[in-house]
Amino acid sequence: MASTGDKLVLYTNNTCTWANRANVCLTEIGVPFEERIINVDGPRPADFLALNPRGLVPVLIFNDQVIIESEIVCQFLCDVYPSHLCPPPTTTEGALRRAKMRFFIDTYWNKFHTILFRLFEAPTKDDEETIVDDAIAGIKKEVGPLLADASPFWGASDRLTLAEVIVGPFVIRAVLLSKHGVYPFSLNQRIEAETPEFHKWAIATSSHPSITRLVEEDVIVKRSIAKRGRMRAAAGLN
């Protein structure tokens, strides 16, 4: 397990939502680490590609071991450094909580957030609103009931859990993109009006300092607008 002599190096970039997960996890655990920023908009350095031939961040160096893929990195950190984020699986209670947390993450992702990805290729404003309908339906039927005991975070917790570590960087982007009209304004409006449990949790998550410290609002908006333009052009919609 962990020791005070562990050396951690995180290759990351704050514009990458996936990499944000590892930053949030390390911040919440409170373990010292060295951060090395990788330019994700250009060719990757050869020494970085030697660590991860996929060229993706995050990459965690734990002593002399290389760990890649954001969820794997975060779960590894939670296993090595026990904290409020995630209980160890050494008891039935801990294993059950981890299973329920994993189910929540999967539900958030598949019943809500992946629906939003369709917005950038929606042909018309009416099509965008239909996608918002689907996203709100996913919250009402699937995600919201899993947040009935949020306090304000998942599982009646008053501190971030691994659930927020994994989905929080995506939550804050959804909130910001709707705020600025990159996603329809109606997304935020309807979440607040129609899904109170989800809204309370999303606001608490997207305003937590461990998450907000990584976010430059104008950068997220500009990069998302550019990405939307590329996707629409590729789909022949511009």
UniProtKB/TrEMBL annotation:
GO cellular component assignments: cytoplasm
Ranges where the GST N-terminal domain occurs: 6-85
Pfam families in the cross-refs: GST_N_2
Entry's transmembrane regions: none
PANTHER family reported in the protein's UniProt record: PTHR43968, S-TRANSFERASE, PUTATIVE (AFU_ORTHOLOGUE AFUA_2G00590)-RELATED
Family: Belongs to the GST superfamily.
Name used for this protein in its record: GST N-terminal domain-containing protein
Organism of origin: Cytospora leucostoma
